[in-house]
Amino acid sequence: MDIISTKNDITTLLLGEDIQDIRTAADIIKNGGLVAFPTETVYGLGGDALSADSSKKIYAAKGRPSDNPLIVHIADIEAVYKLASEVSERARALMEAFWPGPLTVILPKKEIVPDETTGGLDTVAIRMPSHPAALSLIRESGTYIAAPSANTSGRPSPTTAQHVEEDMTGRIDAIIDGGPVGIGIESTIVDMTSDIPTILRPGYITKSKLEDIIGEVEIDKAILTPDPDIRPKAPGMKYTHYAPKGKLTIIEDSKNPGEVTGNVIAKINELLSSAPDNSKIAVLTTREHEKDYNTDSIILLGDKKNNTTIASRLYAALRECDTIGAELIYSESICQDELGGAVMNRLLKAAGQRVIHV
Length: 358
Prior knowledge:
Helices cover 32% and strands 20% of the residues. Helix 11 runs parallel beside helix 12. The strands form 2 sheets. It has a 12-stranded mixed sheet with strand order 1-2-9-3-4-8-5-7-6-10-11-12, with helices on both faces. Strands 15-14-16-13-17 form a 5-stranded parallel sheet, sandwiched between helices. Strand 11 (198-201), helix 8 (207-214) and strand 12 (218-219) form a beta-alpha-beta unit. The chain is α/β, with parallel strands linked by helices.
């Protein structure tokens, strides 16, 4: 265990995954503190989900609007029945198929869950992570853990403990370092309170995978057409997310969305050549196209033929743009298969929906 900062009267500890460090972290949770921990998706910022004060601390640490609901993390399916007032057969089927794993279900909540955790909604978002350290922390804490991503609000989600340190040192009590995460984008969120289950946030568990288990599933229209006036039922539905500090613009071929055509490459090179002198620029591209652009500031997203590599690299790549001080960032669009669509959802939010169609 190391101390990485003492600031604002908060001493931030860097912990490992051994049981003694997990118990130290669990004691912090029990005593109303905040701990960042690894999951299979991204690092979460955890506090006691049944404590209104702990949830308020999470919002404060992140600088997050308090109407943006938190996800409650559990370690066994039976915990759902203590948190939710109603659990349908379809919801149970999804839990049995995909838990532990990167799926969050929204259900009507019981009074035990404070409004501060649910953003004032009468529903609760629940998931069971598969990362061993996350499950151990939940069990050792003796409670359920509310945890959004462990970054300051609007910034790229953290996929390593070092990313958490950048944003959260001196704001929270401890960070459990579990190394790089595997999936790299947040869990799929599906609302099970409507007649037809509805995806509120796309992720690794795709629409077709859900439909294989329970039949028809819809995608919420707000995913495709963001509305600033909506009251969010799930994290990420309303506010700008994942953004680097520089201005990010996506370049997309209007006739071939997601394909890196000659038109896309030509447009990015045109933007590079017309940029103001001395401006710091970065290009987000895949391994297949890294030599196509007239710049040395290339940041790789992964392999075009394998969107899992792009998902796992996306947030780290956006943070690398900040590391090099990029003021202007140009990105290819991502292939719109199901997982690619989830990645593109994050990329569009990071760009504030800024797209040049060619």
